[in-house]
Amino acid sequence: MDLSFGLLVLRVFGGGICLDLLSRLPAQVRPAALRRPDLVCRDFTAPGPDQLWAGDFTYLRSWEGASFFSFVIDAFSRKVVGWQLASHMRTDLVLDALRMALGQRAPGADVELVAHTDRGSQYTSADYTQTLADHGVLASVGTVGDAYDNAMAESFVDSFKTELIADRVWRTRSQLELAVVEYVAWFNNERLHESLGDVSPAEFEGLYVQQGDQLISLKMKIGPN
C-alpha cells in the first residue's frame, strides 16, 4: 500500500472498521498519524475487561496551587484502573497512572489490550510509548483537537468535576489527594452506572467473572465434544 495516498487503519473490534485517510490530515500531523493510528474510531465498547482503556488528565485547584489528575478507565466496566495526582504535567504524570493500571491487569490475557488517548505530548512521548510496547499494549490516539475521539475519557472528566469538584477548593494538596482517593473508591465500588444496568463498575466486573466461571463449570460437566 502506498502511504502517500492515505493510511488505512482497520479495527476488527466489535465488528467495527475505521478508515482514516492520511491525505485529510494537516501536513504537520501526518508523521504522528503514521506512528500511532486511531484503533478505536469512537467505538468505546469492549466485550471484556482489559481489552480497551481510555486515558486523559485534567487540572484541579487547591490553595497551594494547581494539581493535575491523570487517569485510565477500562471501557468494559467504566472502572478507573489507574490514576495519579501531581503538581506538574510532565510525562511521569500519565506514566504513573498507566503503570498503576498495568500493575492491576490480569496476567496472561489472550486478547490484545488497546490503550487510547489524545495526541498530547505526554502520550506520544518515547517513555510512554516504550512502556506500552514493553507490556504488549497497542497504542491508539485520536485526531488533534477532537474531543469526540476520546469521548469516554472526556465524559469521565465531566462526571468527576460535577460530582467531586464543582466550586470546591481545597486548602492543601494533601486534602485534595484524599478527596480524589475517596472519589475513585466510590466511583469504582458504589456509583451506579446506567450504561452498566445500574450497577457499579466493580459489581459489573464481578458479574462478568461469575458468568465466565459458570460457563467453565458447564463445559466441564458436558465434557469434550
Bin the helical content.
25-40%
According to CATH, the fold-level topology is Nucleotidyltransferase, domain 5
Count of spatially separate domains: 1
Provide the residue-averaged pLDDT. Answer: 81
In the CATH hierarchy, what is the architecture at level 2? 2-Layer Sandwich
**What is the class in the CATH system?**
Alpha Beta
% residues in beta strands:
15-25%
Looking at CATH, the homologous superfamily is Ribonuclease H-like superfamily/Ribonuclease H
Poorly predicted ranges: 1-17, 19-25, 216-221
Radius of gyration based on Cα positions? 19 Å
Number of DSSP strand runs: 5
Major beta sheet, strand line-up: 3-2-1-4-5
First-residue to last-residue Cα separation: 43 Å
Please state the structural category. alpha/beta
Q: Main sheet?
A: 5 strands, mixed
Q: H/E element string? A: HEEEHEHEHHH
Separate helix tally: 6
Outline type: globular
